[in-house]
Fold this sequence. Notes:
The chain is 29% helix and 27% strand. It is an alpha/beta fold. It has one domain (6-169): P-loop containing nucleotide triphosphate hydrolases (Rossmann fold), CATH 3.40.50.300. The chain has a seven-stranded mixed sheet with strand order 1-7-6-2-5-4-3, with helices on both faces. Strand 6 (129-135) and strand 7 form a beta hairpin. Helix 1 (13-24) crosses helix 2 (43-54).
Amino acid sequence: MNxxxxxYEMRDLADTAVWGRRLGCRLRTGxxxxxIGPLGSGKTTLVKxxxxxxxxxxxxxVNSPTFVLVNEYEARRSGEVLHLYHIxxxxxxxxxxxxxxGFEEMCERGAVLIExxxxxxxxxxxxRLTMRLDPIxxxxxxxxxQAGGARADVLLNGLASDCLRPAEEDGTAR
Length: 174
Ligand SMILES: Nc1ncnc2c1ncn2[C@@H]1O[C@H](COP(=O)(O)OP(=O)(O)OP(=O)(O)O)[C@@H](O)[C@H]1O
Ligand SMILES: [Mg+2]
């Protein structure tokens, strides 16, 4: 951990659901979120909540892209469509594989969420939100976040204080 890290403590799944929704509604085209954490730390679980917050109508369609390597979802909010790309880098062997997936185009066309990002970290844009998910109990998780530039800063700035209401109002926040 270093001094530019922002740390969030999740007490349970519900905290992750709320936090993920808050982040999701801040995503924009060009946002890149790199998720790093051991097996079962909650990367896919968090992506589901992020997708819900971004406006994916049915987050049940959000599943681990372990075999297909990348899933694409459409997030709709107030008439706008945001493309959401969900990559699993576990089986990627570096630059050529990431390029073959169309990574650059994804970053131009939408927001990109990457599980097992540590496998391709040096290939990702500097301006990304890098998140380490530390399991510290059966249900507790520590999210250690680092913003690598202005776009990533926007994702974290004010994260604790806004965006929650729309999700709460439709009763699906928890
Ligand atoms: N606070 C929490 N946040 C996220 N997941 C939690 C939390 N508490 C418990 N869990 C559980 O931990 C598990 C996380 O599984 P998940 O598939 O999301 O992990 P993953 O990091 O994507 O794993 P993999 O490395 O296999 O892709 C789920 O069963 C989830 O219900
Ligand atoms: Mg996963």
